[in-house]
Design goal:
Strand content: 25-35%
CATH topology: Metallo-beta-lactamase, Chain A
Order of helices and strands: EEEEHHEHEEEEEHEHEHEE
Strand order of the largest sheet: 6-5-4-3-2-1-14
CATH superfamily: Ribonuclease Z/Hydroxyacylglutathione hydrolase-like
Radius of gyration: 16 Å
Number of helices: 6
Helix content: 10-25%
Length: 227
């Protein structure tokens, strides 16, 4: 069983064993997460799917304050290294790496990636995390893609973090198909409601998922669950 805490947008802290991993921390600039004290967040790893501001805003601060390891694609990792992040691990598509909490594979995503100062952020991606108790998929910002079927061929995915806000990423209909592709019935929604462009109807999204035989989990900001 792992513990998941939601910090808004696409930011989640996942506790795997005795290690804490935060994904795409965009918290302090997010008005809807104003109750979250970023300085209180401690992580052993910071995983970044791509370079957009709404996924990296608090990564430097959390990484330095926690003496955490930042993991991302090569371009994003090196950009943070140039900002003084001392512990970082660059990856690229199709590559895997064993860490002390489990094994990480960096997989394809269809999106764009430019860092806040305009530096190209390489190609965006997602992460498949294998750990002692199971496996989960963090999709990052992406469209629906047939590459997701390859994940089901290699991994038994217990649940998946998937964008559902539409407009810039998949909407709920494509996220449901993506869940089929990766072989899971449990979707944790992300990248929705933060901005007007990606506002959703919660009840309609949950009904669509339920009708398709999926469980859609929409957490409140600051809420924790165990899976």
């Amino acid at each position: 069983m792992i513990e998941i805490t939601y910090y808004g947008h696409s930011a989640f802290l996942v506790k795997v064993g005795d290690k804490s991993i935060i994904f795409d921390p965009f918290i302090s600039p997010n008005e809807k997460a104003s109750q979250i004290d970023v300085s209180s967040i401690k992580a052993d790893y910071v995983l970044i799917s791509h370079g957009h501001e709404d996924h990296v805003a608090d990564a430097e601060a959390i990484t330095k304050a926690s003496d955490a390891m930042l993991v991302s694609n090569y371009e994003v990792a090196v950009w943070f290294a140039e900002k003084g992040v001392e512990k970082y691990h660059p990856m690229n598509h199709g590559g895997s790496k064993k860490f002390d909490f489990g094994k990480v594979k960096y997989v394809n995503a269809i999106h764009s990636s430019t860092l806040p100062d305009g530096t190209p952020g390489g190609n965006p991606g997602g992460f498949v995390i294998q750990h002692e108790e199971g496996c989960f998929y963090y999709a990052g910002d992406t469209a629906l893609t047939y590459d997701m079927k390859l994940i089901a061929e290699e991994f038994k995915v217990d649940f998946a973090f998937m964008p559902i806000g539409d407009n810039f990423t998949m909407g709920i209909e494509d996220a449901i198909k993506a869940a089929d592709f990766v072989g899971t019935k449990k979707i944790i929604g992300m990248h929705y409601d933060t901005f007007p462009y990606i506002e959703i109807n919660f009840e309609e999204a949950k009904k669509a998922a339920s009708k398709a035989g999926k469980e859609l989990i929409l957490l409140n900001i600051g809420e924790s669950i165990k899976i």
